[in-house]
């Protein structure tokens, strides 16, 4: 797949314009409104009793020592910084400042953090080209805000793909300590289920913020020593997004 193809070039150009237009419109429409993040209110609303229950027996002590927030933050930061550079190079190219369209692969090769390289190369192999990172979104239902880790052009299916990146959950992402609460009590409270609920709210906010984007898919992407795993947004979480947004707003 060549980044120089005219079809892909048009797709990336249109996507960047839609993102820029959505940012400006949101800034204008929601000026003066105080927005709150969703991570803490989500926990308070749906899984306040969740507790870490330990690693799977397959995870050894050496792995456990580096599976925490520092590991995830380092991978996330390195990958996001590179994607933002890639975005800015595309913007310069679209303004006519450079003749050749940017190619992400040589940029990835320069990354010093192996997991960040594996992550971005895995996205490219799946036809997802990350064109922006830490993209702000706000809710039209409640004064809530968050950020999309990566917005990608889907070179295979068309449209945009949202990526919620999760690093460092190897060995316990499916381990629950109980059930979620309220209308989601049929779901367990494992980190994996939490991540899908978080992505569902983020995706709803993205659609409201960037209304010109008509085709949107969403994925939770896990990156750890076992590789890179992409999970489509669960149907139950997507269906719960509106009600969950309104409930979460009560905890801000």
UniProtKB/TrEMBL annotation:
Which organism was this protein described from? Cymbomonas tetramitiformis
* Highest rank taxon of the organism: Eukaryota
Task: Indicate what this protein is called per its UniProt record.
Answer: Uncharacterized protein
């Amino acid at each position: 797949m060549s980044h120089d193809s005219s079809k892909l070039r048009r797709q990336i150009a249109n996507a960047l314009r839609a993102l820029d237009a959505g940012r400006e419109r949101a800034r204008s429409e929601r000026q003066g409104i105080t927005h709150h993040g969703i991570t803490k209110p989500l926990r308070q609303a749906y899984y306040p009793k969740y507790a870490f229950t330990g690693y799977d027996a397959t995870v050894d002590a050496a792995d456990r020592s580096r599976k925490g927030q520092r590991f995830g933050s380092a991978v996330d930061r390195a990958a996001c910084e590179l994607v933002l550079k890639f975005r800015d190079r595309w913007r310069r190219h679209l303004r006519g400042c450079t003749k050749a369209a940017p190619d992400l692969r040589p940029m990835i090769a320069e990354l010093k953090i192996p997991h960040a390289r594996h992550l971005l190369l895995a996205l490219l192999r799946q036809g997802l080209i990350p064109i922006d990172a830490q993209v702000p979104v706000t809710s039209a239902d409640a004064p809530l805000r968050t950020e999309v880790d990566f917005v990608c052009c889907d070179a295979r299916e068309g449209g945009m793909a949202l990526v919620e990146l999760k690093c460092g959950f190897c060995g316990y992402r499916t381990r629950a300590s109980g059930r979620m609460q309220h209308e989601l009590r049929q779901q367990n409270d494992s980190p994996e289920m939490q991540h899908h609920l978080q992505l569902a709210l983020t995706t709803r906010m993205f659609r409201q913020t960037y209304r010109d984007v008509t085709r949107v898919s969403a994925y939770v992407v896990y990156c750890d020593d076992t590789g890179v795993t992409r999970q489509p947004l669960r149907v139950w979480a997507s269906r719960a997004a509106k009600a969950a947004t309104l409930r979460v707003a009560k905890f801000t």
